[in-house]
Amino acid sequence: MLIGVGLGPGDPELLTLKAVNILKNSDKVYVPGNMAAKLVEPYATPEILDFPMLRDYDVLNEVWKKNADLIADEARNGTVVFGLIGDPNFFSTFTHLKRVMNKHYPDVETSTIPGISSITSFAARADAEVDTSFEVSDGSETKHKIRLKANHPRQLIEEFSKEGYTDFIFAERLFSDKEVIIKNREDIPEKGNYFSIVYAKKD
């Protein structure tokens, strides 16, 4: 299995207990740079993989494929961690690695462990409270939407569909013993509760 592990914003005290536990018990740990390596070193011996900061996607795809080739056999036969700054599902190197891995090595299972992202760490350091809707952008086209407190998920899906969104996930009470995650649009319920989320994605 290949697990993307969020290491938080850079403070070693902001690693989650779950991240520390998986680092200690993994067979191999890879990281994309020195900052991540230093956070991992108290718990495991990391190997740095090259992920150049480029915009040439032909070159980047070659790099991602090369790294996937390197990791595949180890991840197929054991637990391999890719540790990174922030969260593995938000503007993350792991997203690209996972995509290439799933394409070329679909038999390798992948998962993620969340970390404190730049979004929430910024709010803490800047004392910037957010209690209404807000926008996060890196300047690229908006292709994802997350609605919190999704009390009427099917109604939301109909609204998002009119905006061009095609893929939807409904989640409720995440990480609790009553967790619900539904990826089949037809099975998403009419009603959710305060802890419900609808995720929408454009192709």
TrEMBL record:
Keyword Methyltransferase: yes
GO biological process: cobalamin biosynthetic process; methylation
SUPFAM superfamilies per the UniProt record, alphabetical: Tetrapyrrole methylase
Domain of life assignment: Archaea
InterPro entries linked to this entry: 4pyrrol_Mease, 4pyrrol_Methylase_sf, 4pyrrole_Mease_sub1, CobI/CbiL, Uropor_MeTrfase_CS
Keywords: Cobalamin biosynthesis, Methyltransferase, Transferase
Record bears the keyword NAD: no
EC number in record: 2.1.1.151
Residue span(s) of domain Tetrapyrrole methylase: 1-170
PROSITE patterns documented for this protein: SUMT_1
Record pathway: Cofactor biosynthesis; adenosylcobalamin biosynthesis
Top-level EC class as recorded in UniProt: transferase
Entry GO MF terms: cobalt-factor II C20-methyltransferase activity; precorrin-2 C20-methyltransferase activity
Record NCBIfam families: PRK05576.1-3
Family: Belongs to the precorrin methyltransferase family.
Record's protein name: Cobalt-factor II C(20)-methyltransferase
Species in which this protein is naturally found: Methanococcoides seepicolus
